[in-house]
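Re: export button greyed out
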Amino acid sequence: MPARSAEPAVIWSRPERAGRGPRPAYSRSDIAAVGVRVADADGLDAVTMRRVAAELGCGTMSLYNYVPRKEDLHELMADAVMGEYDTSQPPSGDWRADLLAMAYQARQLMHRHTWLPRMMSPVYGFSPNGLRFIEYTLSCLDGLDARYGAKLELIAMVNGMVTTYVSNELAAAERTRSLPWSEEREHEVRAAYLARQVAGGAYPRMAAAMAEDAGPIDLDGAFDRALRRVLDAFNDPTDSADSTDPAGSTDPAGSTDPADSTAPTDSTGGSLGVSSGGGSGT
Amino acid sequence: MPARSAEPAVIWSRPERAGRGPRPAYSRSDIAAVGVRVADADGLDAVTMRRVAAELGCGTMSLYNYVPRKEDLHELMADAVMGEYDTSQPPSGDWRADLLAMAYQARQLMHRHTWLPRMMSPVYGFSPNGLRFIEYTLSCLDGLDARYGAKLELIAMVNGMVTTYVSNELAAAERTRSLPWSEEREHEVRAAYLARQVAGGAYPRMAAAMAEDAGPIDLDGAFDRALRRVLDAFNDPTDSADSTDPAGSTDPAGSTDPADSTAPTDSTGGSLGVSSGGGSGT
DNA sequence: CCTAGTTACGTACGTCGTACGTAGTGCGGT
DNA sequence: ACCGCACTACGTACGACGTACGTAACTAGG
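Workaround output, generated via the alternate export path:
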């Protein structure tokens, strides 16, 4: 990836329409819609500047007038699908129920747009529809006695769990299709490997797990219970140290890392939100 | 990405050393170590076949003798860092405490290798160290009366929560450094945008959140409590519908999606595990 | 010892994001 | 009115990337 020139701003901070030149031929939502359509149809990797520009009906480089970086295209897409959240119903007064309902909405959203979990990443800036989502979710939490920072963290955690859960679901679903070498062959090879490893006797429990008849685990139920528990955990601050205690309870060790347990400061930013990019490091 | 030729197998199913030709100059762990080193130093995106081959001391295409696809390189890397799990201590007998300890180990692991969360994805096949990790964690759960499928799901859920949590942590940490345009400028622009949005009055709660003095939220504590709750949730199957009930309780709606609430079958595969790739779609 | 299968690796193709230059366009200020 | 400039449009091109392919060297099993 070549060096970036300038222009720090998140895309939302630049106006969609500049005053001076000829009027833009396309709107942001046009572009976002194309991106979403391509991603839905052929996967996130198919969303290239060239492809989107072509489907939009313009030259590749013209797209850069609207979207300075590909990352911004992703942000547009994420914002677009977050517009699908239904925030019309007023909060019921039961914040647990409302948050759970939002979680299920998120799950459906990710089912409709399976590329969404891949770009779920906490990001500093919030998109318009992201703000709308957060504001609504916060309104669901009005009955919860906590600081907004904590509420945002709760929302982030719930969103993260949904992402985790849906990722598992989707991975299981994807596995059954879209193998170039037929599902059986793939399964066969992997199962053979696993069986060989397990046959050594080093992994008796894994062996038992494989042998287990695997009646349909109530995945939905498990997810539901876990979610409710997390929600409850933010309500009453009872038992922290239940009875027993692990090696280190609240924050064991943590020495050799950079940026270890430091600084949960600045609670408003970086809590949740959908966006892309995801810093590589350095 | 060009078309793939053949060879379905996961990398672990091919022997490291073939009998016939000259002896390979490097081992898998050599390669994995280089990949990890590069990723730790310069981010996951810096892990290219060329770079790794160069640092390894061989031509680019020679690397393909060891690693048929870049994805497999990632798998090698993931396996390598999963080898850092300490599974030497026998389970204490308190599975909650043990699982919590493993969660903290995972957190530290992701702090040491910040690229790890990005390739955390449930995958069908398990790497050697992944198997070791799962086997050990399952042994921690010996005292839990549940099917192995459920236990694997629990492990997956905990891992997912850790990933979510650490991703949040890292995003907050990364935000403060590694901006090409100086931190202040970035913050300034984003804050300006956010303030402008919020100033409209459409997002009163977000405004309040921003105005909040943001004393240090007990992020660690919140995570710890949430984790413990989830763990407890898998123990006693009491309250599903606590008192109130959201719009849809166990599985609301779910209509327009492909692969909606179907099929949690096959519990042994696709539960957890570290790997890369992550299907794009289609 | 032979030969078949491996390792080593340079070259090359197709793709990507995107910097840059040029030409055309229409609004804002005078 | 008009003029200038900021904007749009977009072709070309560069430097990555993953990796297919062909060739030369090598070594273990027959």
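Chain B touches chain A through 144 residues (CB under 8 Å). The button fix ships in the next patch.
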